[in-house]
Every structure is written in structure tokens, then in C-alpha cells.
Amino acid sequence: MNTYELWSVLIAGLTLFALLGSLWVLIGYAKDTATLAKCAVDQTPRPCVSVLQLPDQSTMALFESVSTSIDGLNTVVLVNIGTTRAINVRFWIGPVASTEDRDFTTGAPIECGGRFDTGHPVKALQDPALVVVEYESVGGTGFRSETMIEARKWVRSARFLPA
């Protein structure tokens, strides 16, 4: 092997090493960019619709280990505790163990911090009752909230899920 061939092999090896190093750096940048994109999505404003609960400092609330209830309300009221408007709001209120098809009722858009009265009397809730709310953000992302109410007064669980 003459000097020319030796230098050609050496330069080809260094070029391969430089290209592999560049590829490794680009893969790292791609992973970091994907992480940044996920963080940006997590920080986007989104609605969060729940059943309105009032502070409850009664003795019964103390025994039930809760600090809020829907006891002072005549009807089930939805509230948007998220950071943006909830649109295409649909809700269903019925028994937890219901096996029938859920016939959702269309509601009005709920502004951030706003309320919507469903018109469903609290006294008509079956025990335990389930309130399911489906809604979208202004960007079109769908969400779902499920709230279980016991004894027509105590909110036992609330889940917020992507639709």
C-alpha cells in the first residue's frame, strides 16, 4: 500500500467517524426536541369541567372525612376549573350501575371559571349517582370528567380523562 492509498483510507476512516458522531448528536437533538414538544403540550391551556362543590364544615362532613359537598345546591351545577373555555359540552347524570345507553344532554360552552346549571335536581339523584361530562378545548381536543356522588351530597371521586 503506497502513501496515497494509506492517506485515502485514513481520511475515509476519519470521515466515517465524523459522520457517525454527527448522527449521534442529531439523534440526541431529536430526542430533546420530542421532550420539548411533550412539555409544550402539557403546558397548553385546557378546560377541566367538574361538579360544583361548596365548602361544608358540618359535623356530618367531618364524619365523612370531606370538606366539600353539593348539599347547598338545588340542581347539579358544572364548573370549569381549567385554564380555557370548554366547548361542545355534553353531560349525562344517572346511576353508577347503569347498563343502559347514556343519552347525553347538550350544554352551553363554559368559560374559564364559569358555571353551567344542568337543571337536574340534586334531590332526584340516585344513590350513588354518576355525572359524566364530555367537552372539548377550543383547539378541538376532547376531554371527559366522571364524578361519583353518594347520598345526594358527597362527591366521592372525580376523574379527568382524555376523551
Give an overview of the whole structure:
With 163 residues, the protein is of the alpha+beta class. The protein contains two helices and ten strands. The protein has helices spanning 3-42, 59-64, and strands spanning 49-51, 54-55, 68-69, 75-80, 87-95, 105-106, 115-121, 129-136, 142-150, 154-162. The strands form three sheets. It has a five-stranded antiparallel beta sheet, with no helix packed on it. It has a three-stranded antiparallel beta sheet with strand order 1-4-7, with no helix packed on it. The protein has a two-stranded antiparallel ribbon with strand order 2-3. The longest helix has 40 residues, at 3-42. The relative contact order is 0.16.
What is the CA-atom radius of gyration, in angstroms? 28 Å
User: Count of DSSP E strands?
Assistant: 10
Coarse shape = elongated
Amount of helix: 25-40%
With strands numbered from the N-terminus, the spatial order across the biggest sheet is 6-5-8-9-10
